[in-house]
Amino acid sequence: MAILVTGAAGFIGNHVSLALLQRGEQVVGIDNVNDYYDVTLKEARLARIAKDAPFELHRLNVADKEGLEKLVSERPDIEAVIHLAAQAGVRYSLIDPYAYITSNVMGQVVMLEACRKLPNLKHFVYASSSSVYGGNKVLPFSVDDRVDNPVSLYAATKKSDELIGHCYAHLYGIPQTGLRFFTVYGPWGRPDMAAFIFTKKILEGEPIAVFNHGKMQRDFTYIDDIVSGVLAALDRPPVVSDSGAPAKVYNLGNHRSEELGHFIATLEKALGKEAIKDYQPLQPGDVPATYADIEASQKDLGFEPKTSIEEGLQLFVDWYLSYYKKP
Asked: Which superfamily does CATH assign the domain made up of 2-186+222-255 to?
């Protein structure tokens, strides 16, 4: 089956593309390889999969209407789309809000318009985020919760994606599955995420910023578990639901909320070096805790995360030391 994967040079998209190739699928990748973070890391990720046929990469922005129209006209055999490309990061949305509207909102519409032109399309799977839960106070976060109170523009764009997806499912019958990812980490991860930032600073003897004075909890989810969830969702296109459209949204998390202090202590143990901690207040747009209720994902997708924070962080550190050739 030919599958279009956006964000193929990104953290999750790269792992998903590799997993699809390993199970015998054709992967048509899209990525504009922008400089939001280290381009050499993105190129190194691509090098992992470029040698694995059948894979082709199109260096396109997902908001490029003409580029996407041309691509789908040349590949009418595409049967599924996994849309993972996005402008990520909560804090960066305070700096460049326009990037989020262009990539996340316009990108979602452009991708769905492209899907309408694919005659064999069976399923559109896209990335949402745990950030949509915003100011929700009740833990764990359930897909049945109201998500009307975003605390960052990033979260607002991801909720917009869910609404746009539902609209296209209702109007055009395109089966849609949105996946709310919870703090994904692991080898080949993003340099703007905690595991990466902390590891780099601990090794270099620099202080790490510990926000909300350490009173933070996150549902850290290992990349292999996320990939398993994405593929499980891909293989199960939704039928018409109670909403009247073939559209579903699921949480993909570890179903366990880790104290930030435990996360740091586990990382210190894996690195064999203590962190210098700089305690700071909660940052604008951030939330104190996330915790995924995955009951629906377990029931409908057979999703069962298996990787503990201890195992996952050790695997991340092993990769980091190898990739950057640290002694």
From this structure: NAD(P)-binding Rossmann-like Domain (3.40.50.720)
Among 203, 177, 198, 212, which Cα is nearest to 284's? 212
Tens digit of each residue's pLDDT, the chain (327 residues): 999 999 999 999 999 999 999 999 999 999 999 999 999 999 999 999 877 678 999 999 999 999 999 999 999 999 999 999 999 988 889 899 999 999 999 999 999 999 999 999 999 999 999 999 997 889 999 999 999 989 999 999 999 999 999 999 999 999 999 999 999 999 999 999 999 999 999 999 999 999 998 889 999 999 999 999 999 999 999 998 777 899 999 999 999 999 999 999 999 999 999 999 999 998 887 888 999 999 999 999 999 999 999 999 999 999 999 999 876
Catalytic residue among 36, 126, 133, 154: 154
Residue 319 phi/psi, 5-degree rounding, is -65, -45
Nearest CA among 90, 99, 88, 87 for reference residue 285: 90
Known catalytic membership, residue 250: no
* Contact indicator for 264, 308 with CB cutoff of 8 Å: no
